[in-house]
């Protein structure tokens, strides 16, 4: 199923808690991405990384943080500063610009 | 930056009919246009893509056309089947060194048997 995994599938947290979503790929892809999906909103880019130890903010980075210490891994932390964190989060990877992005199965985060 | 508009937001067709979904983009330097299909609760999966040096591409019942002058591209599905029911997203690559994808808001296609 593409070699990109996310865990957990469902995550529940209380307001005020930070939470980290996992994303791992074994496709040897240099680039990795995090998207947020809300009903009727399409996919919005949170953060992306083109190479290890480097990452850039996307369109909606406020309240999120990432790290890229290994090529295979790109974890996303949803901080308490994110005002509306409940959403479906998708991780993706590809060989680089203008190549197919492969998506993970997603993590559905619910914060109450 | 790049902006992608997708229409319609919902589309209902009878099994066997054709379905057409249209997208427009704003950045004339965009050069890569993929289409993704997402079934309920699942990950988006690439169904077809086209690059700016090609005007049309076909894969069995699915085709994509690109009009660079008008800055729009379309997905055509012929002989629709119930399993084609899903949300379809178009995307366009941003120009510049990053080349990130900008997605449309999606079209929910329902194929009625």
Write up what this structure looks like.
Chain A contains no helices and eleven strands. Chain A starts with a strand and ends with a strand. The mean pLDDT of chain A is 93. Chain A is globular, with a radius of gyration of 13 Å. In chain A, the strands form two sheets. In chain A, strands 2, 4, 5, 6, 9, 10 and 11 form a seven-stranded mixed beta sheet that branches. A four-stranded antiparallel beta sheet of chain A has the order 1-3-8-7, with no helix packed on it. By secondary structure, chain A is mostly beta strands. Chain B is mostly beta strands and 113 residues long. Chain B has no helices and eleven strands. Chain B has strands at residues 4-7, 10-14, 19-25, 32-38, 45-51, 56-59, 62-67, 72-77, 86-93, 101-103, 107-112. In chain B, strands 2, 4, 5, 9, 10 and 11 form a six-stranded mixed beta sheet that branches. A five-stranded antiparallel beta sheet of chain B has the order 1-3-8-7-6, with no helix packed on it. In chain B, strand 7 (62-67) and strand 8 form a beta hairpin. Chain B is globular. Chain B starts with a strand and ends with a strand.
* Strand count of chain A: 11
CA radius of gyration of chain A: 13 Å
Oligomer: heterodimer
In the predicted model, the low-confidence regions of chain A spanning at least 5 consecutive residues are none
Q: What is the ordering of alpha helices and beta strands of chain B?
A: EEEEEEEEEEE
Query: Would you identify the regions of chain B where 5 or more consecutive residues have pLDDT less than 50?
Result: none
Radius of gyration of chain B: 14 Å
Largest interface comes to: A-B, 23 and 23 residues
| SSE order of chain A | EEEEEEEEEEE
Question: How confident overall, as mean pLDDT of chain A?
Answer: 93
**Which sheet architecture does the biggest sheet of chain B show?**
6 strands, mixed
Distance between the termini of chain A: 32 Å
Largest sheet of chain A: 7 strands, mixed
Mean pLDDT of chain B: 94
């Amino acid at each position: 199923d593409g070699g990109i995994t996310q865990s957990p599938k469902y995550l529940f947290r209380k307001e005020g808690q930070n939470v980290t979503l996992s994303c791992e790929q074994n496709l040897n892809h240099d680039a990795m991405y995090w998207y947020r999906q809300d009903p009727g909103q399409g996919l919005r880019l949170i953060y992306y990384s083109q190479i290890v130890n480097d990452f850039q903010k996307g369109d909606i980075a406020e309240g999120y943080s990432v790290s890229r210490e290994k090529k295979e891994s790109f974890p996303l932390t949803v901080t308490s500063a994110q005002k509306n964190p409940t959403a479906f989060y998708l991780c993706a990877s590809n060989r680089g610009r203008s190549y197919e992005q492969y998506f993970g199965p997603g993590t559905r985060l619910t914060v109450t | 930056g790049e902006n992608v508009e997708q229409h319609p937001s919902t589309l209902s067709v009878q099994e066997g009919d054709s379905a057409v979904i249209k997208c427009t983009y704003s950045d004339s330097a965009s050069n890569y246009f993929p289409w993704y299909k997402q079934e309920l609760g699942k990950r988006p999966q690439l169904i077809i893509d086209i690059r700016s040096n090609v005007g049309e591409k076909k894969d069995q019942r699915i085709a994509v056309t690109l009009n660079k002058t008008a800055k729009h591209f379309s997905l055509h599905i012929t002989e629709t089947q119930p399993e084609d029911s899903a949300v379809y997203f178009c995307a366009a690559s941003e120009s510049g060194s990053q080349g990130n994808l900008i997605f449309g808001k999606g079209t929910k296609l329902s194929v009625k048997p």
